Amino acid sequence: MRLNCSLLARRPQKEPVPFQEVLPLRLKKTVSGKGDKTSDVACLQEMAIMLACFKKNDFNQALCAKEISNFQGCYKDFVAFACE
């Protein structure tokens, strides 16, 4: 006879636990969460092109001068627009 199953089984609660309302039970008018955060990602396409050029040319900056200047110009435009 196995007594472990009957000894380890959960017994029903004898008395129900009363619910205590700590805060009022109503919905808020606004929702807070991760959706409020804005991302300040700038020039992602130019950066990807520049890094692909670096990888293709073994990180030789002389061969990727055009991509570097495009990325720097895009970033300068972003900073100028962000300051306004």
- Shape descriptor: elongated
The major pleated sheet works out as:
none
Number of helices: 3
Number of beta strands: 0
Low-confidence stretches: none
Instruction: Give me the secondary-structure category.
Output: mainly alpha
Distance between the termini: 81 Å
Mean pLDDT, nearest integer?
A: 84
Based on CA atoms alone, the radius of gyration comes out at 31 Å
Helical content class: 40-55%
- The helix/strand series, from N terminus to C terminus, equals HHH
Q: Beta-sheet strand percentage?
A: under 5%
InterPro entries: Cys_alpha_HP_mot_SF, Ribosomal_mS37_met
GO biological process, one term: mitochondrial translation
GO molecular function, one term: RNA binding
Give the gist of this structure.
With 84 residues, the protein is mostly helical. 44% of the residues lie in helices and 0% in strands. It has helices at residues 4-8, 44-56, 65-83.
What does this entry look like structurally?
With 84 residues, this protein is an all-alpha fold. It has a domain at 59-84. It contains three helices and no strands. It has helices at residues 4-8, 44-56, 65-83. The radius of gyration is 31 Å and the shape is elongated. The mean pLDDT is 84. One of its GO terms (cellular component) is nucleoplasm. InterPro entries: Cys_alpha_HP_mot_SF, Ribosomal_mS37_met.
